[in-house]
Amino acid sequence: MPSIFDPQVYAPAGTFMGTPASHDLSRARACVLGVPFDGGIHPMRIGARQGPSAIRENSALVRPYQPPLWNFNPLERLGVVDLGNVNLVPSRVEHSFARIEEAVWRVVDQGVVPVTMGGDGMISLPQMRALHRKYRDLVVLHFDAHTDTYPGDGADRYTPATTFTRAAEEGVVDTSRSIHIGARGTVMIPNVFEHTRGMGYELIDGIEMNERGIPGLLKHIHQRMAGRPVYLCFDMDFFDPSVAPGVCTPTWGGISAREGFEIIRGLSGLNIVAFDLNTVSPPHDVGGMTAFLAGTVMMEFMGLIAQGMQIKA
Description:
The protein has helices at about 50-60, 75-80, 95-110, 125-135, 165-170, 190-200, 205-225, 255-265, 290-310, and strands spanning about 30-35, 80-85, 115-120, 140-145, 180, 200-205, 230-235, 270-280. It is of the alpha/beta class and about 325 residues long. The relative contact order is 0.17.
C-alpha cells in the first residue's frame, strides 16, 4: 500500500522540536540523541534519566529562528534528525557505557555532529571514548558548577564526580589543552580544585570566571583551543538554580540565562565536533523551566554548527 504520510497533514510527535524521527544520517550534518542514564547514586536527587523526555516535550516552546543572530532554520539547514534514545538500563554502568559509546561512534563515523541530551554527568565518559576513536587530539570544554574530576576508586570508580578523572587516566582527551569553567562551592570534600589541576586540566573557577568577564573568558578559550577538535560538555547546573532549578546538584552563584547564551554564541569559530548537554532532572524542575532552557541551549548549539559550516563552505 502507498504511504499516506503528508507533512501538511501529519506532524511528528515526541521528537526534539518536531524534527524527523529517523536513523538515516545520509543527509544529516547533525542529529539529536537522548541518553536516559543516571547512576542512581546521588544522595538526594535521582531523575536525570528522565531528562531527554522532558527536553523533547518542552522543546515545543523553542522556535528555530534567532534574530538578529541568524535568519534561517538551523534544523533544516543541517538536516537534523532525532535518533531517539540510546537503548540502555540506568545504573548498569558497564553495559550502558558500552551502548552509549557505540551509539555515538556510529554517528561520528558518518561525519555527523552528535547533539546529545542526558542523563547525568556520567554519560560524558563513553562519549569521549567514542570521539577519541576519530579525534586523537580531542580536547574538552566543560561548563559546570563542579569539576567532575574528583578522586575515586573501587565502588566510587564510576560516578558523576569522577568522569573527567577517568577521562584523563584513559587518555581520551588532551588535558593540557582542556578547560573546566565555572566550578564553585559548596562541595563535599577538600582539595577538589587542586586535584582537578593535578590531573592536568586548566580550571577557571566561578570567581576567576567572573573576574575575567565574558569577553576575556572567550578570548582565552579561543586562544587555547584554536585548531583542535572540541568536545563541548555543558552541565545545566552551570546556570544558577534561579533559572535552572531542575538539576541534580543545584549550586548558588551561577550564571543567568542571558550570560549563558552570550558565552555559547561566543564559541563560534571553534571546531566543535560534539555537544553534550546533561543533568536535567525533571522530578526537581519547576514548571519545566530547566528543560525549556536546556532545549533553547540545544538550539543555540545547532546555530553554532550551522554557522560554522557556513563559514567553512
